[in-house]
Design a protein that fits this description.
The structure holds 2 protein chains of 2 kinds. Chain A is mainly alpha-helical. Chain A has one domain (25-97): Cytochrome Bc1 Complex, Chain D, domain 2. In chain A, 58% of the residues lie in helices and 0% in strands. Chain A has helices spanning 3-18, 28-32, 41-46, 54-58, 64-76, 83-97. In chain A, α5 crosses α6 (83-97). The longest helix of chain A is centred in the N-terminal third of the chain and has 16 residues, at 3-18. By secondary structure, chain B is mainly β. Chain B folds into 2 domains: 51-271, Oxidoreductase, molybdopterin-binding domain (Sulfite Oxidase, Chain A, domain 2); 278-386, Sandwich (Immunoglobulin-like), CATH 2.60.40. Chain B is built from 5 helices and 24 strands. Chain B has a 5-stranded mixed sheet with strand order 5-4-13-8-9. In chain B, strands 6, 7, 10, 11 and 12 form a 5-stranded antiparallel sheet that branches. In chain B, strands 17-24-23-19-20 form a 5-stranded mixed sheet, with no helix packed on it. In chain B, a hairpin with a 7-residue loop joins β19 (308-314) and β20 (322-323). Classes of the chains: A mainly alpha, B mainly beta. At the A-B interface, α1, α2, α3, α4 and α5 of A face α1 and β1 of B.
């Protein structure tokens, strides 16, 4: 992405956010939880945080089925996620935030 | 373009732009795996002593050691928000009352103040309080002990407001909607309903004061619902709409969440209403080192729709039980302080508290797994060393 397009995207985000109540996500939210930077982490810090802080996700421990159910619900709530990204995201969550006793 | 679709468009633009920007920012470092442990999130102004379970939406848990006052002060009262907390001026606030009524209404705060005022102490507890203790792990915010607080609420009876609207005989449930809006057009509004018997019950209220001050916006001000005895999510915050309907509200916060099977292997789930009978040991804290001799063991007990009938204490890990005493003020739907004088001998001891209520309920020693992690009222234990 060019610098100009990124700037335009940020400006759009700021402008659109200004029209919303509640106020936009403070940038600090993205920086608060540091998570392992393995394959899939970018999906957490770019898609999950559209609606909520990273903390909401990473405090949970779920097996593959549990994370799959959560991710699929988030897609119905508007999270953009391609099928390949879905597999990557679930694998990431299970790897780092799995529950050995869980489904 | 309609207002609704305009809003949806704006939201979608916001989504895509934020996502792309965040991704661009996220891709920048390109470092190898960095296993930095997570720093705790920054404290929330005005609620600095609370555990930040999530900074967005704001979800804050009261540390057990802060639950020392009968009226939980505003600065340590827990916050459980499904969506971002809207800020609404009391002067601008209105509520729409509609649905199965002969007289739909739009009321302002001044209109509610003209109804007979009531003040009562009510304990609110999140249905997911204790979720972190479920094994296997349950999904949702990982509350431990402190998604609970007791406050003095002032407001009017919901029944008095419903009488103004003249509810029709077909109105059997009352749904509440707040100004807390979801962050995407597709995510559902946080709307929940209670059956008409509970809506008309004389303790169910619309509140505008908490502990003798206007309700803080993080806790639902200027006006929130308080449904005493029910799980916290029944008490919608930032109230803006009261919808009288023939059946339980048909939305995911009634039909998907806030439900649990009655037994672990049940396929069917029921919609949670009453809180469980439950108690906490506030002092001594788990891990405390005490001198031998007289120790005051104390905590809180509560029971939703039941009334407390007893609180037993064990100092030997549950082998034997002795009645504790309820002390101090209480109200129909408040928690009650309990105390137990213990002559502590040297050694390691596990203290336990177990409440019972008028519905015949006793705190259990285990709780069947339910995937969303509700109903955690397992006997609280605190192990201490006396030397």
């Amino acid at each position: 992405m060019s610098r100009r397009r990124l700037a335009a995207a940020l400006a759009l985000a700021a402008g659109a956010a200004a029209a919303l109540v509640p106020p936009p996500v403070p940038p600090v939210v993205l920086a608060q939880a540091s998570i392992p930077q393995t394959d899939g982490w970018v999906l957490v810090v770019s898609r999950c945080v559209i609606c909520h802080s990273v903390e909401i996700a990473v405090q949970q421990r779920q097996g593959p089925q549990g994370w799959g159910t959560i991710v699929d619900r988030m897609v119905t709530y508007g999270m953009p996620l391609e099928p390949a990204e879905r597999r990557t995201l679930i694998a990431y969550l299970v790897r780092h935030y799995g529950d050995p006793e869980g489904r | 373009m309609s207002k609704r679709s305009q809003r949806a468009m704006t939201r979608r633009g916001f989504l895509i732009a934020t996502g792309v920007a965040a991704m661009a920012a996220g891709l920048e470092p390109r470092r190898a795996v960095a296993q930095t442990p997570s720093a705790p999130p920054a404290p929330i102004p005005g609620k600095e002593r609370l555990i930040v379970r999530s900074p967005r939406p704001i979800n804050l848990e009261t540390p057990l050691g802060e639950l020392t006052a009968y009226h939980t002060p505003e600065d340590v009262f827990y916050v459980r928000n499904n969506y971002d907390a809207p800020v609404i001026s009391p002067d601008q606030w209105t509520v729409h009352v509609e649905g199965e009524v002969d007289r739909p209404l739009v009321l302002r705060l001044d209109d509610l103040r003209k109804l007979p005022a009531i003040t009562q102490d009510v304990t609110l507890e999140c249905a997911g309080n204790g979720r972190a203790f479920h094994r296997p792990r349950a999904s949702g915010i990982q509350w431990e002990y402190g998604a609970i607080g007791n406050a003095r609420w002032k407001g009017c009876r919901l029944a008095d407001m419903l009488e103004l609207a003249r509810v029709r005989p077909t109105g059997l449930h009352v749904a509440f909607g707040g100004a807390d809006k979801p962050p995407t057009a597709q995510a559902p509004d946080f709307i929940r309903s209670v059956p008409i018997w509970k809506a008309l019950e004389r303790h169910t209220m619309l509140a505008w004061e908490m502990n003798d001050r206007p309700i803080p916006h993080l806790n639902g001000g200027p006006v929130r619902v308080v449904v005493p005895g029910f799980i916290g999510s029944a008490s919608n915050k930032w109230l803006e709409r009261v919808l009288i309907i023939p059946q339980e509200f048909d939305g995911p916060f009634m039909k998907r969440s806030y439900r649990a099977p009655r037994a672990e292997d049940d396929k069917e789930t029921y919609s949670l209403q009453s809180l469980e009978v439950k108690s906490l040991i506030v002092a001594p804290a788990a891990g405390a080192r005490l001198a031998p001799g007289r120790v005051s063991v104390w905590g809180w007990a509560w029971s939703g729709e039941g009334e407390l009938t007893g609180l037993d204490v064990s100092t030997d890990g549950g082998k034997t039980w002795t009645p504790g005493q309820f002390v101090g003020r209480w109200d129909r739907y408040s928690w009650r302080r309990w105390e137990f004088g213990w002559d502590a001998p040297a050694g390691r001891h596990t203290l336990m508290a177990r409440a019972t209520d008028s519905l015949g309920r006793v705190q259990p020693s285990s709780r069947a797994f339910n995937p969303l992690g509700y109903r955690w009222n397992v006997i609280h234990a605190a192990t201490v060393d006396v030397a």
